[in-house]
Structure formats: C-alpha cells, structure tokens
Amino acid sequence: MKLTCNRENLISGVNIVQKAVPAKSTAEILQGILIEVGEELRFTGNDNEFGIVYEIPAIIEEIGSIVVNSKTFGDIVRKLPDIYVTLETINDGAMLSITSGHANYKIKAYPTESYPPVAFLDTSVSFDIKEKTLVDLIRQTSFAAAAQEEKRIILKGVFMEQKEGKLSFVAIDGFRLAKKTIDVEDSREFSIIVPTKILNELSKSVKGEDDVIHFCCNENQIMFFCDSFRMVSKLYKGDYIDYRKMFPREYKTSCVVNNKAFLSAFERSALVIQDEKKYPLTIKFNNNDEIIMYVNAENGILREVIAAEVTGDEIEIGMCIRNILECLKAIDEENIILSLTHALGPCVITGAEDKSYQYLVMPVKITSKSV
Amino acid sequence: MKLTCNRENLISGVNIVQKAVPAKSTAEILQGILIEVGEELRFTGNDNEFGIVYEIPAIIEEIGSIVVNSKTFGDIVRKLPDIYVTLETINDGAMLSITSGHANYKIKAYPTESYPPVAFLDTSVSFDIKEKTLVDLIRQTSFAAAAQEEKRIILKGVFMEQKEGKLSFVAIDGFRLAKKTIDVEDSREFSIIVPTKILNELSKSVKGEDDVIHFCCNENQIMFFCDSFRMVSKLYKGDYIDYRKMFPREYKTSCVVNNKAFLSAFERSALVIQDEKKYPLTIKFNNNDEIIMYVNAENGILREVIAAEVTGDEIEIGMCIRNILECLKAIDEENIILSLTHALGPCVITGAEDKSYQYLVMPVKITSKSV
Predict the structure, then answer these.
(1) Which is nearest to B68 in space by CA: B25, B97, B26?
(2) Which listed site, B14, B120, B319, B332, has its alpha carbon 20 to 30 Å from B271?
(3) pLDDT tens digits for range B230-250
(4) Does domain A123-244 have CATH number 3.10.150.10?
C-alpha cells in the first residue's frame, strides 16, 4: 500500500472516523483506524454499534489495506510539517511509514482481517434530506434526549417519524420534550429510534450547507450516506412514548418574551444557584407586563425583572435552569411564547412566529415565593 | 458604602486581585476580596504571602468597606447585563447588593476588621522599568524555575540581580537555566530571589506597553507598583546558586539553525515519545550541514532531518523535549545558536544576533543511536 494525499484532507478524514473508534477496547485492533487503498483512499472507524467510512482524494501508487492505532496516527498527522503526506506499508505490513517533508514516522500496523466491516444497507429505498435541514432537526432536539446513564434505552435516542407528509424528530428525557417537524414531499412512512450519538457526530461531520444527505434504514440499523462518507448505527428497539398526550389541551396563561433577554437572565441565575433541587428558580408571570425571576439560594438572593406580554391568569412556577437554557439556545427567533396551565403543569415553549418547533418542560416545586 | 462603576473596569479589577486570593483557606474571610471606597474604589486580594491592591474609577456616593467571597462576586460581575454596576452595602453591612440593569443580587458580606492588610514598602528607593522590558524578562526566564513540589525553595524563584549597570533575571530548576540581561542606567546594586508567582501574575496583569512600572524591595518583600495597582510578595531567603560557573569555558561544536523548524520538529517528536526517561530524543549534529533527530520509542520510530550550519566536532546528544520546547518559544529570533561540549556536557542556546538571552540545558543519556 502506498499513497500521497493532502495533509488537511487527511486530518479531516481522520477526525471524522475517530468518532466511531472506542476509547477503550479489550481488542487492540478495535482501537484502530482501517486504511484501505483501492480506487479511493478510505478510512473506517467502527465500534460494532456505530461505524463511519470516509473517503478522501489521494494519489494512489499501490493498493492495499492496514489498521493503525487511532490515537497515535491521529496525533501524528495533525502535526506533520508539509502540505503533502505519503503513507506506505513497510516490513511486510508490520509498520506504516508516514513521511511529510523531512519528517518520517514509522508506527506499528495490524493486519486487516480481524477488523469488523461496517454494514452496507440496501440503498434502493433511501430518503433525501438537505444538510442544513438535517443539522437543524438534530440541533433542536437531540440535547433533550436522556443521558447515557438512563436505564430506559429508548430515551437515549431521538424518535424519528415520517407520517402524512411530515418528518418529526422528538427527544424526551422525562423532564422535558423537544419536537421539530418539517414538511416532506414523500408519502412513505416509518418510525424509528436513532441513538443520539450518530446524529450528533453526523451534524458535526457535515458542513450544514445545501448539499443533500441520503439515509435508509432496516429493522435494525440506519445508514446516512453521501459520496464521500457512510455512517451506520444500530437502532434502539421498543415502543416510543406516546408524546402527543403530553401536551395540554388548553392553556391558562400565555407570555411573549424576548428570547435573548430571557436566556441572559437564566444564565446569570445559574451563577447563584448551586443546588437546583433545593433552590429552584421561581418565575412569576403577572399582569404588569413583566416576568419576575426570583431565588433565595445559598450564595445570595437574586431578583430579575424582564419585560413581557402576559395574558391570562397570574401564575408562579418553579424551574430547573438547565432544562430551559438549551431550549432557549435552540430557538432561532427573536421572541418566544410560553404557554402555561398551572403551577405544576407543563410549560410549552415555541417561537413567536414558527410553530414547527415545540419544547415542553415540567416545572418543579417552588420553595421561595417571589417578592 | 455605595458606588457605581463601569462593568468592564470592575471585571478587570476583580480578575487581577483574584490571583492573590487563596483557593482554599481555613479562614472564610481570606477567600474574600476586600472592597474599599474612599477617594477611590480599591480592590484587594491577599493570601498573606502575596497581595494585590488594584484601583478602578468609580462614581462614589458613600464611603465604606466590605469583604465578599471572591468566587461568588467574580462569577456574578462577569455576567451582569448592563454596562454600569451599582454596589451598595445593605442590612447594616451584612450583605452586598449588586445591581445592573434589571438584575439585582444580594450576597453575603463580611466585616473588614479581620482582613489582613497588604504591606506598603518604602517607595523612596524605588526602581523604574518599562512594562514591555519587564514582561520580556519574566517571559524568557520564569518558566525555567523549579515547580512548586521542589524542596529547595530558592529554585522556585527567579534570581533578580542588578550589578555594574546590568539587570539580570535567572531561573534554574536543576536541569536547565534561563538568563536574560539588560543594560540599566542605575548604579545601585541588589540581588534577591523573587517567587515566580508574583512575576507571572504581574506579567499577565500589565498590558506589556511602554508604560513604566516601579518596584522596590526590602530584606523580606518586593513591591511592584504604578498608579492603579500594587503587588507585594515575600522574597525567598538563601544563597542563590553560583550559576556563572555552570557555563563551559569553551565549546567543541556550534550549530546555527532556524528556530521555527527546530521547534516544530520537537513538537512532533513529543507525539511519539510517551516516556522521555526511557526513550529520550537523540540529536546528531554532523558535518553534512544538518541535524538528525531520532528516536525508537514505544509508539514508533521517528526520524527528522533539519538543515543547519554545523561547525566543529561531530556530536550526538540525548535531549528531554520538555526542557527544550519552552526555550525555543522564548527566543524571538529567526535563527538560534547551539553550543556544545561533549555528549553529557551542557548545551547552551542563544539567539543568533542577540546574546543577552542565554539558555543552558543538560543532555540526558542516549539509548537509541541515530541512523
């Protein structure tokens, strides 16, 4: 195997496939990156549940394949001195020689036989989506999925559903729900639960432009692909929560507020509150056209007043700051609408103009009354 | 106490004095910042060995003083919404109210009686130095002082000596020595050992411009000061190492090399070498007008060839990368000169033009011969 490629292309390729390489593995070869040289130069990272195959342009002199340790290889290529890099197997494939300018490295290589292949799904039933649209769907929902420690596996994924000309992404962690819906010109229907890991890595790997990404899935796996890469992940199995029932039928209070002002006040509040369970933030919506945020916590007393248009009943709710911050960052509009029922009922947040994004958050019990 | 000041000024003042506040202290008050309002608004941080007093402009309504927790106060002021901030003691001085725009915080305050004052040294025998000159003296030497774990306290400081119209800064950690000398128009003489902490904080706190910083010292302390601040630190006591004896009288090999190329090669070498003691880098200076850097370490084999002008005997030395990297970054010149004696004798590095900076480093024993 021998090839020469551009250093920047090499670095971006390695950065992307490294995301699928497990940090620790009992099998040394699984901590590796597979380098394959055929008609193209192709890198693969795979932890058996999530795999990435990525191609970069190269001048190919000799075909072949090899596995090298992901961390060692990545650390070296990121520091190489010249704009071109030559990779060549030596010692009958026992080592990989990396040459760039006057620098030469020789690192241990492994035969490729025992490296697990990344699945290739049937692409005849694939779907198309614009990069930018996909990145927005992921950005506005995936943060609300449950953390890795969660026992109910389905909550660690994003529910992806296409039905009646609409594609929805939904994420729920038990305290909050994020949902984004777009119209699609495709009458096929499906509903799957996708691990957040593949979605987050996918949105980091694409440029978020007008290019089209394809995806297809079977019962067990989903594959996102375009000309230069392919990402495959297993799906989570199980019935997803019937989230439609979670939204209240009617609201008693509605409030329009500037998103940035509301976000800044929450960020400052986070500074004085160390123990959110003990000292949740109290938010009072009243008819004086303002919101009062108040807490009497261990480090001091905070009071913030924000201008807002409040209609309906006066209401006071307790809020966990973390559950609100990410939602406010995910909404791109200048003003948002908060819709409320009662002190312990859900609060639903949407943009003032675009209702295709909905965020539902459960309040917490208030300990300190506002003044 | 009541005053209003600009938020940015407040943040920079707090950032600077926080450096002298101990992260942990048995006395709660010592984790505080002293705020004094008299003719000026003055902040103080002090851990009894190192103290900073810093003044910022303010509109003063009522004089007074108070101590507040450094971390809580700092975290809050950095996030305030408005460009002006009003500070006011309330509840008979039991709390400090912080108001900015519509945000109001009330944090716990402490009486100032038990806060230790920062010493004020006799300024009638002070010295002047330009900010930029002082920052360079510190930047080029202090990194070579010994780490906090070192048992010989004097090695944790920088030796500052004025003698025969020259001011020198010297730092030694047992493996390397950095020395920078400048000419001064001042015939007074002194020699002291200054803790690196005050020097590093000082160089971070000044803008490195043409302004003049004053300093003065007595047997026990040094004080750096200008109109807006004063930093006082204890001095280390003891006889400093007779470093002049450490420089060889004559050299057998001399080498001129591009500093940037040499530095890059060292940075890359650091990537394959995990255990420097086991696998030190071998550097061969030979008469082919090149330097060969070589190592056969646990993660692979590295070989780098760098163009250089070598004169004198051929020589091969082992080098600890960390001991070289910081020196090469501290030299601002394009080319550097390395002067060598024998495989285990000191290597002295200076700029090719300016010899006022000298760096001496001890080689280590070679394990792998270059090829």
Answers:
(1) B97
(2) B332
(3) 999 999 999 999 999 999 999
(4) yes
